[in-house]
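To whoever is on call:

I kicked off a structure prediction for a single chain this morning and the downstream step that reads the tokens threw a length-mismatch warning. I double-checked the sequence; it's 375 residues and nothing unusual in it as far as I can see. Pasting both halves so you can look.
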Amino acid sequence: MKKTLLATAIAGALGVTAAAQAATVYDQDGTRLDINGRIAMGISGGGHQDVQPGEDKAGGTEFRDVYSRLGISMSHQIDPALRAFGRVEWRFKGDERDQSGGFAEVRHSFIGLESTQFGTVMAGNFDSFYSSRVMSPFDVYIDRGYEFAAGEGSDLQARGDSIGYITPNLQGFQAFLMAKHYTGNGLPETGEDRSSVLNVQGGVTYQWEGLRLAAGFVQDRDDNALSARGTRHRYDSRDLRGVDENIYGATVSYAFNDQFSARLGYETQDTNDSAIDAGGAVEDYSGFSTWGLGATYSLGQLAFNADVYRVRPDNEENRTAWALGSYYKLSNNFDVFAELHRADQGDITVSTADGVSVDENSDNLFWLLGARYHF
């Protein structure tokens, strides 16, 4: 198998550097404990701007943290065919003093069992299987440029109160199933249904030589329990609930050699016409379809990404987004990067002080320069 198949997401060049540089704190009698993480700093500017009167300024030049994190991984080999594992990972802001406790987010916290015969089961707070196993060939950018997974990426019906199962590798085939639970407990009584909600996602992958195929779905329910919890999983982020139509996606990636790989992807969600006919807002229940085409080229310590998307929201104008990235490893622990992203969101109409409506460009070119130290 061509080793750069895993590098479609720059994993070979950058993405797994943290794991590869993990410090083993304890490793004895089948029990292991590793600590790893990264400190990342950068300067960014541009992108979508909130230019309406009264809104916070956005899009200006900013010195910033670029997703620094600290993680602990643990495992125990119960027997030759069964392994228990766990991980907890925190995000912290590394660019400025933080007197609120230091850590900004518990990014991951899960436990699981991995069997060579029966597969892997895990529970807790982890990434969407749909995003990490189906759409992952396009998740190659450190910040912006990933237009799939309904704009939510690893948060899509995931990150907390979840359980998942992955089959063993069966001659290149693997299937997965995952469910996220939203409890109705603690919600105020309003006369509406406060039952618990279970959103399911699943799919299958196939890998042979340099070829990788993947397809899957995610339930995206419209339910009061999700809305009251403030769950953000809509395509355009304007509604806290789902469209109540499934999201479907598929990707094809191929590593031509150890330096060059290409990827093609498609994702879609139907418009919920019945909800709109019942009085629901069009912008809240509209679906979309998105095509993506991209490539990764790596040469030693240097790697490049290039991707273009055609995004077709049902209730808005079509747009063509693109992203570029360049990454250079000075050492196994230290890399520098540069990324560009144009979402092509077009102009928005704003009112001036004298009441005249004008169109202003709310979508400048986003850019990011930075460096990361992995440990």
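Update from on-call: the warning came from a stale cache, not from the record. Cleared it. Sanity check on the structure: The first helix runs from residue 11 to 15.
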